[in-house]
TrEMBL record:
It is found in: Cytoplasm; Endomembrane system; Golgi apparatus. It comes from Bambusicola thoracicus (Chinese bamboo-partridge). This is General vesicular transport factor p115. Residues 613-623 have a biased composition (Polar residues). Its main location: cytoplasm. GO terms for biological process: endoplasmic reticulum to Golgi vesicle-mediated transport; Golgi vesicle docking; intracellular protein transport; transcytosis; vesicle fusion with Golgi apparatus.
Amino acid sequence: LSFDVMYSSQSAKEFDFHVRWPGVKLLTSLLKQQGPQVQQIILVSPMGVSRLMDLLADSREVIRNDGVLLLQQLTKSNAAIQKIVAFENAFERLLDIVTEEGNSDGGIVVEDCLLLLQNLLKNNNSNQNFFKEGSYIQRMKPWFEVGDDNCGWSAQKVTNLHLMLQLVRVLVSPTNPPGATTSCQKAMFHCGLLQQLCTILMATGVPADILTETINTVSEVIRGCQMNQDYFASVNAPSNPPRPAIVVLLMSMVNERQPFVLRCAVLYCFQCFLYKNHKGQGEIVSTLLPSTIDATGSSVSAGQLLCGGLFSTDSLSNWCAAVALAHALQENAALKEQLLRVQLATSIGNPPVSLLQQCTNILSQGDKIDRRLTGQIAENLGEEEQLVQGLCALLLGISIYYNDNSLENYRKIGRENFVEKLGFISKHELYSRAAQKPQPGFSSPEHMMFDHEFTKLVKELEGVISKAIYKSSEEDKKEEEVKKTLEQHDNIVTHYKKVIREQDQELEELKQQVSTLKSQNEQLQVTVTQQVSQIQQHKDQYNLLKVQLGKDTQHHNSHGDTLQMNGIQLEEVSKLREELEDWRNRHEQLQGQLKEKDAVIENLKSLQVEVGTEQSSQPSSSGGVEHSAELQKNTAIDPALGASSAVASRSSEKEGRLLQELGELQSEVKALSEEKASLQQQLDSSSSTVAILQDEKSKLQQEVAEAKKEQDDLLVLLADQDQKLSALRSKLKDLGMPVEDEDDIESGDQADEDEDGDEEEQD
């Protein structure tokens, strides 16, 4: 009713002061008493929020200022109204009021505007993005301009500056979405806001609470942003000689005379500087290494300050330095190894000890560490000692979980007791507080127990340690049996690996032999092919020669299929063919000559017979007439006899010559027969060589087949063993035991490749 009356009065009396101002106060009071109900009424009223936003533009300051208070109550815990107010140009109007009132030097109005801005931006990602996109971050820079003389700040200025720093932290809070936080961090760097904050950080005369909040603000502006972290690392304090801001802050952290909240803020700043900053982590750890320590002692490094605080008599310095060093190693395995090189000089005359050894000495407090850990866990102590028992159980559990069984595995604590003590950590109230946010939020040194990152580590390790510890004796027994079986199978596999390795060597040698024999066989095959071709040619020639010489066809056919010739080249075949042709022609000529000469001899023989007959038929006389007649007859016959004698003489010469030539022809025929026999012998030798090569080839193929069969049997046996081994390894993994992988598959693959290679060569 009051809400409606106020607006009706506004319309009728033109925003009459005496009606408007009481209406604002009444609505503010209603929001304080019945906030959610009134918020819902205003939210559903047409133009309700918009008309209330008009209060910020009222020329009467008292109504404007009360309007700011009204909007504070209206925007509490209501994201919908916050968005409407932001889009009604609230940021622009509020920042104008802050500027008009003098920024941090302004009065209570500035404080009210800053509180309203916090309501609009805190936990409201949409409004935060709108604020950044509207370039309102740049308008915050003048808020943090301070002069050289910072003494005598008013309480209102301190309050205003404190709220301004908190407003910056709202925009870069670690609880915001990472993308939104990063974009705001970059905008603050580019507009110079981070640089202005670092100026306050190194300024003198700044009140302690403002300095503390400034350190916290700078921490979150640089957290996880490499560009801002690099800038912060380059900031130097205005001292002579200049010192890095990080070193100056660490000096305050390990100084027990500094306020507790300031030391916590410095620790938070150091943690934020190292968060996701591997470069910064490396620079801090490098100041601890022997090669980078300043031997002159003219300057102190961050690493030296941390080591000094780690072994200080002040317990708060111990805690802060230990946590800071832990953050220097966070998610950086390489730096953990580097830190093991750190050597510390504990006292004059004593040799240096490692940093890890010194921490262990402090933990054990000069007593046996085994009794101090295990003793704390085993005892039943009061509630005040339960947290210490839990921490001891965690440390012992880490040692057990990462034990590689190189040390004796023994237990003096029951499993149930151990797991119960380990659970004391996560059940502690201080653990729950530290797990909520990264900033250390301790009200007093007595509550300084857990670091935020440490709580994440405890949560991660608690489950795996419990799983590693909480095993029954039956599981241990089964595990031992499986281990023994696995060892036996490992021995079998090792034996067969050796056998296979030896057989691989033998197989390789056989492969080389087969390759050599294969090459020889190919050469012999080529030779045999050539010889078969030559033999076929010579068979044809022999058949022709056999027909021409009139030899026994049946005899030659019985041996013709088996005749082979070895070593006779094509030129020799052509030459032999020509010689055979010549001999055939000569043979034909000689046959013709023999026939002619036989005919002449026959003629001569018949002529001689006729002459002898005529002489024997003539009568003999002793008278002169007869003698005269005989003389005349002889005289008449002499020419015929002379002619006959001459013919006989020539015939004898021809006959002798023919007989001589016939003998020569017979000798040549005999030589041809011998040459033919020699060729026959060479052919028989070639056939024998081919038969021997075929026999050797068959033997080699049989040896390769036997070797392949033997290897197949071994591979089948090895595959069976591998299958059993895989089953056993799976059982071990199901039981939670670590199982190292072996090169079994690689050996099997190599054997398969060799086998495939043999098959290809045999094919």
